[in-house]
Write a structure and sequence with these properties.
alpha+beta; 4-stranded antiparallel beta sheet; 3 helices
Length: 102
């Protein structure tokens, strides 16, 4: 990657069903180790909202759209989203961003 190229940032926000945030976090933790092994993964961190503990967010950084798309096609990611809404999740949204360089 050249110095002035931007990277793809994904913000995946999940809202756990009432009282199921620990179960959701446990399920999301299973994705971390495998994802960190992917060649295009730069950052993949799990965060919990201080104001609303039911809100759990992945902040992800990928080399580019191609490596992110390859991640989304991995069996363990497809399995997590099987049927659309993952276990213990009330709602979720995923947004893609590009890093802004000075």
């Amino acid at each position: 990657m050249r110095m002035n190229e931007t990277q793809l940032v994904c913000i995946a926000r999940f809202v756990a069903r009432k009282g199921e945030e620990d179960l959701l976090i446990e399920n999301l933790h299973r994705l971390i180790e495998l994802t960190h092994q992917e060649g295009g993964c730069i950052r993949y961190e799990l965060n919990q909202s201080i104001d609303n503990p039911e809100e759990i967010t992945f902040i992800e950084k990928w080399y580019d759209q191609v490596t992110f798309d390859a991640h989304c096609a991995k069996d363990y990611i497809v399995d997590f989203f099987k049927g659309g809404n993952p276990d213990h999740v009330e709602s979720f949204d995923v947004s893609l961003h590009k890093e802004i360089l000075a």
